[in-house]
Structure formats: C-alpha cells, structure tokens
Write a structure and sequence with these properties.
By secondary structure, this protein is α+β, with helices and mostly antiparallel strands. It is 34% helix and 25% strand. The strands form 2 sheets. The chain has a 5-stranded antiparallel beta sheet with strand order 1-2-3-4-5, sandwiched between helices. Strands 6, 7, 8 and 9 form a 4-stranded antiparallel beta sheet that branches. The radius of gyration is 16 Å and the shape is globular.
C-alpha cells in the first residue's frame, strides 16, 4: 500500500532505502533535535523495525520519494510511540527528511496524507505530534497542519536530563478539527 500526494509517494521501505537513511541519520544537522546521530548499524536497526511495523499492520513511518527524481528523501507517517510517554497510548504523526529536501513543503504535504489516512482509513479520533521545544521547524509544520499546542509539555524520558532537548512540546489535532482545517485549506 502506498499514498500519493501531488508531488510525493509514501510507501513501504525497500532495501535500497537503507543506505540513504543511514546517511541521513548520521548528518548532525538532520539529527540536531535528537540526542545523537545514529551509526550505520543503528540506522539499519531502526529502518528494519519501521519496515516490519508497516509489514505487520499496513501503516507506519513510510519512506517518501519524489517520483522519477529521488527514490528516498526521508520518512513521514504515523507511529505508536513507546508507552513511557505521558501522552501514551496515542498515535503520532512524524517526519524526518534529508537536509537537501528541507524548505520545499514536503514534510507538510506528506504529513497531510498521513493524517488523512489516520482519520479516514484508521478511524482515529485524535493524532499527536511532539518534539523538542527548540525544534522550531517541526513546530511550524505542526501549526501548518492545524495542530494545536496542548500545553502539556513534558521531559522526554529517553533524553538525558542534562540535555537542552529534554523539554518537549505536545501538539494534537482531532478528527473534527482536521476536517475543518482541510475544508478551510481548500476554500
């Protein structure tokens, strides 16, 4: 199964994506709002886990490609985060794109497709997104998606206490608010 937008395809992962994903996850700029970059082995472990989740349930953090131009530019999609988060159980929308593809609206465009899928195909009533409070670019995407800051900031349990990335913001959108947002977007 894949999702199509005007400019992108969100699809399951292929083995040929793993090298580009490893490159992306070793880039300090791409990973600046995460506790650390990932080694090749760590990236492969993450990619295989993401792929296995899509294989088993039909959705997840899909690989994103620009048809006939770039086979892999990053991932965007839906995920069920660990139970150690204060917002769990929940489904989150998330993204990570290679730096060369920033600033083109791809994260927002692909996340819109993921939200459509979550609300329409999965029948979810609410989807969240969270990031380090310092991650202004991702917060801007959340706002473009019509998500609202819940005010329920939290210290991410997987981030070291001394890190300036510990403090996270939590955004959310309901199915009804999403429908209202897409209606206002198309008018």
């Amino acid at each position: 199964m894949s999702l199509r937008t005007e400019r992108l395809i969100l699809r399951n992962w292929k083995e040929s994506d793993f090298g580009a994903f490893g490159d992306m996850c070793s880039d300090p700029e791409v990973m600046r709002f995460f506790p650390s970059t990932l080694s090749v082995a760590e990236s492969l472990e993450v990619a295989l886990k993401i792929k296995s989740l899509i294989d088993s349930r039909g959705w997840g953090f899909w690989a994103v490609e620009i048809p006939d131009k770039h086979d892999f530019i990053g991932f965007v999609g839906l995920h069920t985060p660990k139970n150690n988060l204060p917002c769990s159980p929940c489904v989150e929308v998330g993204w990570r794109l290679a730096k060369a593809y920033w600033g083109n609206g791809y994260a927002t465009e692909a996340a819109q497709a993921a939200l459509d899928f979550g609300f329409d195909a999965l029948g979810l009533q609410n989807i969240v997104s969270f990031t380090a409070a310092l991650n202004v670019p991702s917060i801007a995407v959340m706002k473009k998606l019509g998500m609202q800051n819940t005010g329920l900031d939290f210290g991410h349990p997987d981030v070291p206490d001394a890190s300036n990335l510990k403090h996270h913001v939590l955004y959310s959108i309901s199915s009804a608010d999403w429908r209202s947002h897409i209606t206002s977007r198309s008018s």
